[in-house]
Design brief:
Layout lengths: L7 E2 L5 H4 L1 E5 L10 H10 L4 E7 L7 H14 L3 E9 L19 E5 L3 E3 L2 E3 L6 H18 L4 E3 L3 H7 L4 H14 L2 E5 H4 L3 H11 L2 E5 L11 H5 L6
Parallel strand pairs: 2-3, 3-4, 4-5, 5-8, 8-9, 9-10
Antiparallel strand pairs: 1-10, 6-7
């Protein structure tokens, strides 16, 4: 892939692209492995491209050093290592909670619905009943896609799945269709989507959005989680 062209459309996924993981957390935030350990693990299991996407906020100041470390290790490895971040959707305008100076520096920019911003507070999704939780997550997701500050929508439906083991397929379809319209990658995230992949697959085939394959790994053992799930299906 050319630099800057980080994603493939769902119907074009191939074996080479399967060996990527563009959603990994390191010890810079809440992951258990250093960037070097993550890179070594990725190489051991045959990955060709990874993205380190640690959590960030507007008040975070670590990104310059983090980016330097990624670039240093990238020179040492026979592995493409992308510098990225994951930031929460901070309001219903779809803005994300990240410092303005990192947007141009980061290669993978993930906007994720985490806690819900209502009034002056952030609320846990579990504080709402299932239907309201799902509707709020849908609205925040669509707003983030339309705002376009990121190039990946992180773990769509994930807060509802975590809280209630369910996110309506019609809401997934609305998100996927909007991702396709705005050319934003849908984070097919094995931490949240592995169990519902057969249903998601039909919607993804229909709309054919850009796809970012991610493990959302916080442990070294979780890296590359889609390989075992999809390698029997993706053969070309």
């Amino acid at each position: 892939m050319k630099k800057g062209n980080y994603f493939k459309r769902f119907n074009a996924l191939d074996r080479k692209y399967l060996y990527t993981d563009k959603h990994i957390h390191s010890t810079w935030t809440d992951g258990e492995g250093s960037i070097l350990q993550i890179s070594q693990r990725a190489r051991e299991i045959g990955l060709k491209t990874i993205a380190i996407t640690d959590h960030i906020r507007e008040t975070s100041t670590y990104f310059a050093q983090y980016d330097q470390e990624i670039k240093k290790i990238r020179k040492q490895m026979s592995l493409e290592i992308l510098a990225g971040f994951e930031a929460k959707v901070k309001n219903f305008d779809g803005e994300i909670d990240a410092p303005k100076n990192v947007f141009k520096k980061a290669e993978i920019k993930i906007a994720s619905v985490h806690r819900f911003p209502l009034g002056r507070r952030l609320y846990s999704p579990k504080e709402f009943d299932k239907k309201i939780c799902q509707e709020i997550e849908l609205e925040l997701s669509i707003a983030a896609i339309k705002k376009g500050q990121a190039n990946v929508l992180g773990h769509p439906g994930g807060m509802s799945i975590r809280g209630y083991n369910e996110f309506p397929l019609e809401f997934f379809e609305e998100i996927i269709a909007e991702c396709k319209k705005q050319d934003m990658a849908f984070d097919l995230d094995c931490s949240y989507h592995a169990a519902i992949y057969p249903d998601l697959k039909l919607i993804l085939q229909k709309h054919n959005p850009l796809i970012s394959l991610g493990s959302d790994a916080h442990k070294l053992s979780e890296i590359g989680g889609w390989i075992e799930i999809l390698k029997g299906e993706i053969k070309k």
